[in-house]
């Protein structure tokens, strides 16, 4: 059992504790937090409370989170498109439709299942059995370059570089509409959507700072082909930021139009093209490029 302690801020005074916890503990689902309230695992000033309890400033809140029972993840012989590999790490080109690490409903066919087969026991263990070697991730329907750590040394080094925002990450995307400027900078905190828990949103309470730079590569009238450079790496960052300025990604039915104009398209047109970082052992700067996937290339040719 893990204990998470916090002190309520004045801005949340009068808010129901279940809503408060859903905002400040957004790594957990609201239903999970409500179950902890029901089971008596949430106390305020050392007394158990119900979901309807309204917090006051400086309440001392403690949430006891049960230890998770992690499933036994199996190695699977799934082909990998490897851009680079050595004894510390590997860089893979993730295909569309592949989940990075196991989670509810996705315990097989993930990148981790494939890595466990390819690397055997040579994956960093810092993130536990569900995420061995995984130091960052990209969405299921996003393609492109992803670094995987074989050793704890590599994992610690890459995690530090991610925290410092020193890793080069450039993406290619197609967005709805014709962007008025050839380049721009989007800055706005990103956090869990207050009511739609599977979505992220800009400028919400407890959001984390996020900065995205974009530049136009080609214009197609109703669509624009762009490159995005990340300063930060928040969940769904490019998708949320581009949608927030009125130019959602083509195919993104979460943050864009519910009906996609390209019927054959599966998910957002987003590709992690370039990834650069300092090698954890040598200190040398390394940069890798993942070629555009076939579906993306065909779309560009069709628009041209």
UniProtKB/TrEMBL annotation:
<dbReference type="InterPro" id="IPR006224">
    <property type="entry name" value="PsdUridine_synth_RluA-like_CS"/>
</dbReference>
<feature type="active site">
    <location>
        <position position="139"/>
    </location>
</feature>
<protein>
    <recommendedName>
        <fullName>Pseudouridine synthase</fullName>
        <ecNumber>5.4.99.-</ecNumber>
    </recommendedName>
</protein>
<dbReference type="Pfam" id="PF00849">
    <property type="entry name" value="PseudoU_synth_2"/>
</dbReference>
<dbReference type="InterPro" id="IPR002942">
    <property type="entry name" value="S4_RNA-bd"/>
</dbReference>
<dbReference type="InterPro" id="IPR050188">
    <property type="entry name" value="RluA_PseudoU_synthase"/>
</dbReference>
<dbReference type="GO" id="GO:0003723">
    <property type="term" value="F:RNA binding"/>
</dbReference>
<comment type="similarity">
    <text>Belongs to the pseudouridine synthase RluA family.</text>
</comment>
<dbReference type="GO" id="GO:0000455">
    <property type="term" value="P:enzyme-directed rRNA pseudouridine synthesis"/>
</dbReference>
<dbReference type="InterPro" id="IPR006145">
    <property type="entry name" value="PsdUridine_synth_RsuA/RluA"/>
</dbReference>
<dbReference type="InterPro" id="IPR020103">
    <property type="entry name" value="PsdUridine_synth_cat_dom_sf"/>
</dbReference>
<dbReference type="InterPro" id="IPR006225">
    <property type="entry name" value="PsdUridine_synth_RluC/D"/>
</dbReference>
<keyword id="KW-0694">RNA-binding</keyword>
<dbReference type="GO" id="GO:0120159">
    <property type="term" value="F:rRNA pseudouridine synthase activity"/>
</dbReference>
<keyword id="KW-0413">Isomerase</keyword>
<feature type="domain" description="RNA-binding S4">
    <location>
        <begin position="15"/>
        <end position="79"/>
    </location>
</feature>
<comment type="function">
    <text>Responsible for synthesis of pseudouridine from uracil.</text>
</comment>
<dbReference type="Pfam" id="PF01479">
    <property type="entry name" value="S4"/>
</dbReference>
<dbReference type="InterPro" id="IPR036986">
    <property type="entry name" value="S4_RNA-bd_sf"/>
</dbReference>
């Amino acid at each position: 059992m893990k204990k998470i302690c916090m002190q309520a801020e004045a801005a949340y005074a009068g808010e129901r504790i279940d809503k408060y916890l859903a905002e400040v503990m957004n790594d957990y689902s609201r239903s999970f937090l409500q179950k902890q309230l029901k089971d008596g695992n949430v106390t305020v000033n050392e007394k158990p409370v119900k979901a309807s309890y309204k917090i006051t400033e400086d309440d001392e809140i403690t949430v006891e989170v049960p230890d998770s029972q992690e499933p036994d993840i199996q190695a699977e012989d799934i082909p990998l498109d490897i851009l680079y590999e050595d004894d510390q790490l590997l860089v893979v080109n993730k295909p569309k439709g592949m989940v990075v690490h196991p989670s509810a409903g996705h315990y097989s066919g993930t990148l981790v299942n494939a890595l466990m087969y390819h690397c055997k026991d040579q994956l960093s263990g810092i993130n536990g059995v569900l995420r061995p070697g995984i130091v960052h991730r990209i969405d299921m329907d996003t393609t492109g370059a992803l670094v995987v750590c074989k050793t704890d040394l590599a994992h610690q080094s890459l995690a530090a570089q991610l925290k410092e925002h020193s890793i080069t990450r450039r993406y290619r995307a197609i967005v709805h509409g014709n962007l008025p400027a050839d380049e721009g900078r989007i800055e706005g905190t990103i956090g869990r959507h207050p009511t739609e828990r599977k979505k992220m949103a800009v400028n919400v309470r407890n959001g984390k700072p996020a900065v995205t730079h974009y530049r136009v590569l080609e214009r197609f009238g109703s669509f624009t082909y762009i490159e995005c450079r990340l300063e930060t790496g928040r969940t769904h960052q490019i998708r949320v930021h581009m949608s927030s300025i009125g130019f959602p990604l083509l195919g993104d039915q979460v943050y864009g139009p519910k009906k996609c104009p390209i019927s054959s398209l599966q998910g957002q047109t987003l590709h992690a093209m370039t990834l650069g970082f300092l090698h954890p052992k040598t200190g040398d700067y390394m940069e890798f490029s993942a070629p555009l996937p076939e579906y993306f290339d065909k779309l560009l040719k069709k628009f041209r």
